[in-house]
Design brief:
By secondary structure, this protein is an alpha/beta fold. Helices cover 33% and strands 25% of the residues. Strand 5, helix 8 and strand 6 form a beta-alpha-beta unit. Helix 2 crosses helix 3 and helix 13 packs antiparallel against helix 14.
Length: 470
Amino acid sequence: MAIAKDIYVQHQPEVKRYYYNPAVECISREELLALQWLKLKKLVEHVYHTNKFYRNLFTKNKITPEDIQSLEDYRHKVPIITKQDLLNDQNEYPPYGLRLGIPETKVVHTHMTSGTSGIGQEVYGLTRPDVEYLATWPRAWYAAGIRRGDVVVNPFPMNPVLAAPDSLISGFAKMGVNGFHLGMYPTHQKLDIMRRFKPHFMDISPVYLTRMTVICQEMGIDPKKDYCFKAILTMVGSFEVDWALEMQEFWGCKLHEGYGSTQAGSLMGYTCENGSVPNGQRGRIHLMEDIILFEVLDRETREPVKSGEEGEVVLTTLSRSGSPLLRFAMDDKVRYFSYKECDCGRPFDTIECGTIARYDDMIKIRGMNVWPQAVDSVIFGHKETSEYQGRVYVTEDGREEVLVQVEFKQGIGDQVKGDLINRMAVELKEKVGVSMTLEEAKEELPKFEFKAVRWTDERLKGRQKIAWRL
C-alpha cells in the first residue's frame, strides 16, 4: 500500500484532503478505467478456465474470453446474475456452489448474507489473501480524520458470518486503531464504556445512532464533553438531511457514510472529507472502483443511468479469488453521480448519501409502490417520535389496510400525540399516496442495532382465511 498523505487542495488552501491510498485515490479517471480493464480481463480469463459456474454461464450464452475486448463488450455480452441464480447453484452443489471456484481447503473464512430478504442466504468462501485485501475500511476512516492509535467503537452485533463485523476486525488491525467491539453489551453499558475510553470514531447504523442519542439524553451524557469524537460513520439505513444535521450538532462531529455488502466482502464506498451533509446538502459516497466494477442500471431497460438518476447497483468483484461475482444485481436502489460531481479530486464515481434503499423492501399497496424509507422520513421527521411498526393486512371483507403504530418519546403529552397522529396521517397520504391508519403503540416497540425491520405483510394470510370461508 502507498503511504497515506494529507494534501492541501491547490487553489483551495482551506481544504485539506486525506488519502489513505494515494496510489489509487489520486490517479486520473483514464488510469482508473485502464486498471479496471486490466483486472477485468484477467478475471474473465481466470473464471472461464477455473470456475465451473461461470464456464457454464459463458457456454450457455455462447461467449468466450476472446469475445470480450472492452468494458462495453463485457456489459453487453455477459448476462446479469441474481440472488436466485446463486441460491440455485448452492442448493445443487452445497454448501458453496460451483461458484466457489477454489478448493474448499483454501477457504479460511465464510461469509453469509443476513437472509432478511426471506428467500435464503448467499454463501461466500474467502481465501487468506481475500480476507486481507478486503480490509477496505481504513480508506473511509482516514478520509474522516481517523489516525493510528485512535479509539474506535464498533457497536454492531458481532455475527462473524456477516461481512461487516468480520471485515471491521481486519480493518482495525490494518489501520492500527484501538478497536472496541461492544455489540454484546446493552446500550446503557456501551455508553458507559465509551465514557471511560473516550472514543474518536464509531461505525453505526442511523437507526441505532438515534437510539443512542435518546439514551444519552436519559443518562445525562453530553457527547461533546464526555467523548472525543472526530467523526461518526453511518451504514445500513437511509436518513434525512435534517436528522444528520441534528446528529452532528448533538455528537459534536461530522457524519460520514459508508456503503458495503456481504457480496463485496467489505466496505465498497465511503464519503470523502466533505462528509454526509456538506453545507446542509446530501453528500457523495465514492465507490471503490479499483476493487469493484460498478454499474448503476435502469431497472427496466438495464441501460446505464445518467448522473443524478436512480438505478440498481450491478457489481463485479475485481480482486477476489473465492466466490467471485460477475455482474451481480444487488437489488440496491441508489442515486448515481459522476466523479465530476465532487470537488475532492478522487477518480471514483459516486452515489448519493442517505438515500440507499432496497428494491425488495418496496411494498405494493393498493397499486402504489410504497417505500419504507418514505414512511421513515415522515415519522422520524417529527422529533417527538422514537420508533414505529407498520402492518399491511386484509380485512374480513377483503379490503387492504395499513396500520402504523407510533412510539413517542417520554414526556410527550396526550394532546400533542393526538395532533401528531393526525398530522402524520395527512403527510403520509401526501408523501406515498396511500391512506394509513395511525395509532400510538400500546407497548414498547422493538429497537434495532443493525438493520431495521419495521414492516410485516399479512395479506397472504388474510386472503387465505377468506378463501377458506368460501
